[in-house]
Amino acid sequence: MSIAVCPGSFDPVTYGHLDIIQRGAKVFDKVIISILINRNKTNPVFTVEERIELLKEATKDIPNVEVDTFNGLLIDYMHTKGANAIIKGLRAVSDFEYEMQMASINRLLDNKIETFFMMTNNQFSFLSSSIVKEVGKYGADVSSLVPPNVEKALREKFEEPR
Amino acid sequence: MSIAVCPGSFDPVTYGHLDIIQRGAKVFDKVIISILINRNKTNPVFTVEERIELLKEATKDIPNVEVDTFNGLLIDYMHTKGANAIIKGLRAVSDFEYEMQMASINRLLDNKIETFFMMTNNQFSFLSSSIVKEVGKYGADVSSLVPPNVEKALREKFEEPR
Amino acid sequence: MSIAVCPGSFDPVTYGHLDIIQRGAKVFDKVIISILINRNKTNPVFTVEERIELLKEATKDIPNVEVDTFNGLLIDYMHTKGANAIIKGLRAVSDFEYEMQMASINRLLDNKIETFFMMTNNQFSFLSSSIVKEVGKYGADVSSLVPPNVEKALREKFEEPR
Amino acid sequence: MSIAVCPGSFDPVTYGHLDIIQRGAKVFDKVIISILINRNKTNPVFTVEERIELLKEATKDIPNVEVDTFNGLLIDYMHTKGANAIIKGLRAVSDFEYEMQMASINRLLDNKIETFFMMTNNQFSFLSSSIVKEVGKYGADVSSLVPPNVEKALREKFEEPR
Amino acid sequence: MSIAVCPGSFDPVTYGHLDIIQRGAKVFDKVIISILINRNKTNPVFTVEERIELLKEATKDIPNVEVDTFNGLLIDYMHTKGANAIIKGLRAVSDFEYEMQMASINRLLDNKIETFFMMTNNQFSFLSSSIVKEVGKYGADVSSLVPPNVEKALREKFEEPR
Amino acid sequence: MSIAVCPGSFDPVTYGHLDIIQRGAKVFDKVIISILINRNKTNPVFTVEERIELLKEATKDIPNVEVDTFNGLLIDYMHTKGANAIIKGLRAVSDFEYEMQMASINRLLDNKIETFFMMTNNQFSFLSSSIVKEVGKYGADVSSLVPPNVEKALREKFEEPR
Questions:
Q1: pTM score of the predicted model
Q2: Tell me: the pLDDT tens digits for F14-35?
Q3: Does E92 touch chain A (CB under 8 A)?
Q4: F76–B128 CB contact, under 8 Å
Q5: For E112-157, what is each residue's pLDDT tens digit?
Q6: What are the residue ranges spanned by the domains of chain F?
Q7: Strand order, beta sheet including B114-119
Q8: Which of D114, D118, D121 minimises the CB distance to C26?
C-alpha cells in the first residue's frame, strides 16, 4: 500500500493545496495531510485545531485522505505512519530550490522515502496562504482562492476585535 | 494499477536516469521507459534499437520496468498503454521551467493524467546524456556516469570511423 | 501620443499574445503589433502574409491596434513609426533574462525608448506558439489556446500533404 | 488620462527608484509615488514623513510626479486615486517571482488595473534601500547610490546617538 | 601575496564550507576564514568563541588557513588584513543572486577587491548550517554533513536543557 | 605559480570579457585566454586567426596574459599548459546553471582543477558576443561594447559583400 504524506502549515488551506491533494489521492492509496505544529517562528491566524477542522471539511469528499499533525522531523513522523512518499506542490523557482533542498535532506535521512513534486494548477500558481490572509484582512473577496468554509472562517477571524 | 511512463531520448541512458527509474519503480506498479522517436532535429549517437538494448540491459534487475518507444503526443501514447502518471527527474531551474510547461500542456490535453517530478540525486545533478557524449567523445572516463554496458557502447561508438 | 510596439514572430498568434495586446491597448494610444521577418534560422509554419492576416482578424475589434512587419533593428523601426515604448509579455524566468538583455541593448541604442513588461495571464503562462504547433500537428484540440481563425488555419496547415 | 502608481517603502529612495520614476513619468500622464505605511514588521530608518520629504525633494524637477502614502490594499488605494496602472522596477529573478505573484493577485482583485514592469538600469541592478542603509551605517560613500539630499539625511541619521 | 577572505556565520561550519576552504587554500597563498559578528538579527546556536574553536579544529591540517572575526563592512576589514580577494561558495540560484548583489556593492566600495565564486561540491549542494541545526535538533545523524568535532558539539548543545 | 585559463569563443572579444580578464590577471600569476576551436555547430563571424589577433591587440597592455587556442576537452588542454584554475564570468541565472554543470564535469574529470567564477561588471551584464554581432550587423554604434580594434574589425566585416 502506497501512503503519501502532504506536509504543510495550511494556515489556511487554499484551492492550490486542494488541487494537489485531490490529484495525489488519485495515484496514492492514502494521502495524509499533516500539519506541522510547534514552529515558534510564525504567528498563525488559525489554531492547529481550527486548521484541522477546515481541512477535514474541505476534503470530506475524498475518501482516502486523512488529516493529522506532526512535529519534529518529517521522516520520523513518516515512519510512525508507515508512509513511503512525500507529495509537494511546486509553483515557482523559489519553491523549487527550497523543496529540492528539503528533498535532499530527507533522502539523506532515509533513502527509501521519495518526494514527488506536483505542478500547481496554473490558475493557482500565484496563490499562497499568506496572500489569502493578506487580502482577506482587508475584506477582499477570496471566494476564488479558498473553499467556502475557509472563506467564512477568514471573514469571522478578521471581524473579531484584535 | 498505477502505471507510470518515464519519457525521454535516453541517448544514452545515464546513472541519473536510472536513479529516477529505480525510485519510481518502488512506488508505481509498473514504469514504462519510453523513448521518443521521430524527432528530426537531433543527430543521435545511438539508434533507437541500440538505445532500447542499452536500457533493457541496464534495467534488467528491476522487474516492474518495461522499455518501449513512442512518437506523436505523449498523452495519446499513454492512453494506448493505460498509463495515468508521468515521472520526470528535475535537476536545475532550467529543467524546472521547461518541465512545468510540458506538464501544463499535458494536463490541458488530459486532466486525468498527472506528472510527478522527482529530484535527481545531487551526485548526478550536473549529468545529462549530452555531457556524457561530449566527454566520452574525447576518451574521458565515464564509468561514474553511466552503467558498464553503456560505457562499453560509447567506447565502441567513438572508436568507429565516422 | 504614446505609441507602443509589440514585436514578435507570432507564428501563430495565441491567446497569450492577445491578452497582452488587449491590455496594452487600454493604456497606450496605439499598439503596433510588428512581426519580425527575415530571420533565417527558423522554419515557420505560417508565411509572414498568413501571420499578418491571422493577427488582423484576431485583433479586428481593438480599434487602436495596427499590424505591421519589420526587419533589422527594432530601435530603427521604432524611429520610423514614432513609437516610444515596447511592450512584451513575461511568462517565466527564462523569458525574463532574455528580455532583460534585449531591453538593456535597446536602452543602450536609444535611451528614450522604454520597454514595459506585462505579466501573461496565469492561465496562459505555459503557452507559446511552439507548443501550439507541436500539439496542433498531432490533431490535439487547441481551441482554448488560440482564437478560432488560428485554430482553423492550423487545422488546414497540418492537413496539407507535407 | 493614464495615472500610474509606483508603490514601495522608499526607506530611503535610491537612484534605482528614481530611474524607474523618471522613465515612467515620460510615458504616463501622472505618476504617484506611494509609500506603503503601517507594515509593522520592519523597523524603518526614516519615518514616513521623512521619506515623503526626501522623495519630494528628489523628484521636484519632474512635473507630473506626486508623492503620497497608502495603507491597506493597493487596489483599493488606486480606486481612490483613479489610477489604472502600477509601475515596478525589476532587478533580479527573485524580484521577478515576487512581483509576478503580486501582479496576479492585483489582477484578480481588479482585472482593469495593469502592472507594468520596467527594467532597472544595469548600473543599479544590485541596488536596494537595504544595501544603502547597510553600507551607509558604516560611513561608506553612498553618493553614487542615492541623490544628495538622501546622502545628507543618511549621514545625519547614522551620526545620531542610537 | 594573494590573501583571500572567506566570510560567513559558520554556525556551525559544515563539510560544504570546508570543501570551499580547502579548494581555495590550494590557489591562494592564505585564506582567512572570518566570522561575521554583531549581527543582532539571529539567535545563534554556537557563540562566536565556540565557532572559532570548531573552525580551528576542523581546519587544523590546512597550513595556510587562519580563523578570525570581523564586524562592520567586509571591505574595511579586508584593508586591515591586506586581503585582495573574497571567496564564496555557490549552491543555488538564490545564493547566486544574493552573492552577485554583495559582490557588486563590494566592487563599488573598493574596485581593487575581487570576489571569486566557487561551486560547492554537488554532494553538498543542499547543505547549510541551518539544515544541520534543524535536523541535529531532533537527534538525526549528521556525521555526513559536518566534521566529527562539530557533530560532537551539536550533540552536546542539543542535549543541554534549554 | 598559479596559471588560470579563461576559455571561450571570443567571436569577438567584448568589454565584458576584458573586464574579467583584467581582474583575473591581478590575482593569478598568468591568465591564458584560450579560444575553443573545431566546434562545427556555429557559423563564426571572425576566423580563429582574426579572433587571436583581436584578443592580442585588446590585451597587449596586460603583461601576464597569453592568447591561445584549444580543442577537445578543456581539462586535457589545461594539463598541457600546467594550468590549475579556470576563470569564467557570470552574468545571469542561465549562465550560472550551465557553468555549474561545466564546473561539475570538470571537477569530476580532474579533482585538482578549480573553477573560479567572477561577476561581470553590472554595466556589461547584458553584453555578449552575439548581441554585439546582432547590432553591429545593422550598423549600430558598438563603441561602448567592444574595444576600438574590434569595433573597426566589425565595421569592415559587415561592410564586406556577403
A1: 0.90
A2: 999 999 999 999 989 999 999 9
A3: yes
A4: no
A5: 999 999 988 888 888 999 999 989 998 899 999 999 999 999 999 9
A6: 3-159
A7: A65-70, A30-36, A3-8, A85-90, A114-119, B114-119, B85-90, B3-8, B30-36, B65-70
A8: D114
